[in-house]
Amino acid sequence: MNRKIILLLSLVSSSYFFAQSIEGKVTDMQNKPAPETEVLITKADTKFSAITDENGMFKIPLKEDGNYILEIIKDGVKTNTENITVKGNSTKDIQLKEAPVEQKLEGVTLTARKKLFERKVDRLVFNVENSVASQGIDAVEALAKTPMVRATDDAISIAGKSNVAIMINDRLLNLNGQELINYLKTIRSDDILKIEVITTPPAKYEAEGKSGLINIILKKNSSLGWNGSLQTSGSYYGDRPATSTRSGASFNYQGEKLSITSNLSIGDNYWENRSYNYLTGTTDNNYWKTNSTSNNNYRYKGGGLKGEYKINDKNLIGINYNYSFSNPLETGESRANIFDKDGSLDVSSNYSNRNRRNVHNASAFYDVKLDSLGSKLSVTANMMLNNSNARNFYNTITSDVVSTFANPISKYRIYSAQADLEKTFGKVKTEGGLKYTKIKNDSEFNFFTIEDGQNILNPKRTNTFFYNEQNYAAYASTSFKINDKWDAKAGLRYEYTTLEGISMNDDSSAKIKYGKFFPTAYISYKPNENNAFSLNYSRRISRPYFGNLNPFKFYVSEFEYSTGNPYLLPSFSDNLEFGYVVHNNFNVTLYYNRTKDDWDRIQVVEGKSKYSIVKNFFNEDQAGINISYNYNKLKWLESNIFLNGYYSKTKSYDPTAIAAPKGYSANFNLDNNFFLNKSKSLTLMLGLWSNLPNRDGNTYYFANASVYTGMKLNLMEKKLLINLYVNDLLNTNRNKGIEYYPNYDVEYYNKGITRNIYLSVTYKFGNNNVKGATKEVKFEESSRAGGASN
Known about the structure:
Blueprint: H1 3-14, E1 20-27, E2 38-43, E3 46-51, E4 57-62, E5 66-74, E6 77-86, E7 89-91, E8 94-95, E9 102-105, E10 108-111, E11 117-119, E12 124-126, H2 139-144, E13 149-151, E14 156-158, E15 163-168, E16 171-172, H3 177-184, E17 192-198, E18 211-218, E19 225-236, E20 243-254, E21 258-281, E22 287-310, E23 315-326, E24 329-340, E25 343-369, E26 376-397, E27 401-425, E28 428-451, E29 454-457, E30 463-481, E31 486-503, E32 508-528, E33 531-542, H4 546-549, E34 553-557, E35 560-563, E36 571-582, E37 586-606, E38 609-631, E39 637-652, E40 663-675, E41 682-691, E42 694-696, E43 699-701, E44 704-715, E45 720-727, E46 735-740, E47 744-752, E48 756-766
Parallel strand pairs: 1-7, 1-8, 15-18, 35-38
Antiparallel strand pairs: 1-4, 2-3, 2-5, 5-6, 9-10, 11-12, 12-17, 13-14, 15-16, 17-18, 19-20, 19-48, 20-21, 21-22, 21-47, 22-23, 22-24, 23-25, 24-25, 25-26, 26-27, 27-28, 28-29, 28-30, 30-31, 31-32, 32-33, 33-36, 34-35, 36-37, 37-38, 38-39, 39-40, 40-41, 41-44, 42-43, 43-46, 44-45, 45-48, 46-47
């Protein structure tokens, strides 16, 4: 029975026995009604309470006149405390206070604090709505302020994890890469209730990836109606010849039964990169030195539509559809100087690549509530279609010119179906489910030599590759509350995979079958409101991207190419974490993970030819600690600090690559928000991030750092949002490292146009309380397509 109905019945019955009462209205800082706010009246050991209605009104019957303590609790936070005297029927209106309050009872000081971080049994929760600095921005910027998470306009990652998947309201987004970033930029932080960081995903989720999950929980629909928003943003690169722009629109509708959300976006991103790759012999005097420049104009457009229909209180159906189209143009040139026992050779090359890519994602779901305890059955179906057609032109210049044309065509299809059952038995909650996934990738690589303006097919470099994969999964898990302080959760997932890769050019094939169990276990201990501990374990698998399995040879020049490996195997990792949260804003996590049969791309020299190939070649152990702290003691400042320190050790079992030296490393983030007015609508932002030297596989990475600053302005009651940033203020962001091999080392360097001025403007109209359709469907396999777009 709804708690409001219970409250109504209690008020009616109590009127016969209680002759005294207190009633009134609770308003917020802007004098607007504060619904669903708890009003608590205490006298000795006796307590009376009420929840305000949608107009902020409350009424509490009392047994007798006298002196009482009145407290106001909003969203779990105590905002007001005062002593009152009641005589007969009293009236009292209350306005919420902004800061936590202190109340002394019998020599003990009780302080109500805003809960920014919460440690749950299997995840860390960041309550976005309680962070002033996280308001008035988009979801990507909100993720950047989340503990353990690094988010930029290029990628999102979790400390100690190689990749991450994003969920909205417990359903995985069927997007990756730039499409994912574009979608997250359509979500405003004001619509986000909390962000959950799941570093060791439970058995319910795919065991794929040495990764974590980020679950963005949106605020519930609180009213009927509609709203929309318009966004535009751009980056200016100073003395560069182009800018990057993005424009978008979103619309939400909420009815009694039907909810609809749609969005459109279009963009034109510009990217420039300068790099070198210096291969130097350690057992001889050979070397291969390459200097390159490249320019990328990434043009895209896309949109999405989500719809949900509430059949009744127990049944919900919905569909999701996303489409994206991109046709990036990449041009570049390089100069290489090659020296070996036969002498030296100077090589120049240039290229122009255009890739047209269409991606369709479609999903459907059906949820049915089975009882009043929270039991539920969910059935989902997913489909992803990707068509990629590239036109790549290369010119290699030595004493003469060799011109070539490559036409790689990729068509991959991913289908999945899943059923999940949640059943509650008293204090025990159980989950179980089945899933089937089919992945099919048909690729053609047509290679031509250009002579007298004619494209002449080169059969030796032309190939067709077929890839088929099927995954069968089943899982079961249970979670239960041992007592008021202890919670536990455990699960087991089994996945069986069959895959086959066929290369038509060399008439070779690879067939692999394997089945593995993936256990997960969690336990948490919360002795009081200010301390929470957790311990968890999980086993994971990382399957190769499609592009890394494809044996096509992608030529940069007549002397250089990259290729995939159809015999590439998955890697497995074991992960152990211990977490501690104190005072709800200070988080410490100790972690250890061991990865077996990990892979990376290595460089191989054969005479005057050089190529790169992906291989399984190393095992890695990593142990570390990360610390997150939110400082909000001052009204004019909120700071988020994150520090991750770790020790890693790699062992190579392949003689073609040498493991990077073992050692310590760390990375650091600091975000400061200075509120320049009382309403906190004008904010100055200043932050930095830094990576100390680190290692992975056979690569040693040099230190890296970047500083940003900017202003944030909220106008028209947060309907107009303006952000102005200067990214990489000191122009220090670059990638530099050394790869180690038995007979040579490779030093590399990449520097893009990371320093830029970024301006974004968003205007919201309509009913801000309407969220529209918010569910997303799990489709973890779509992320593996990230390597298949080339």
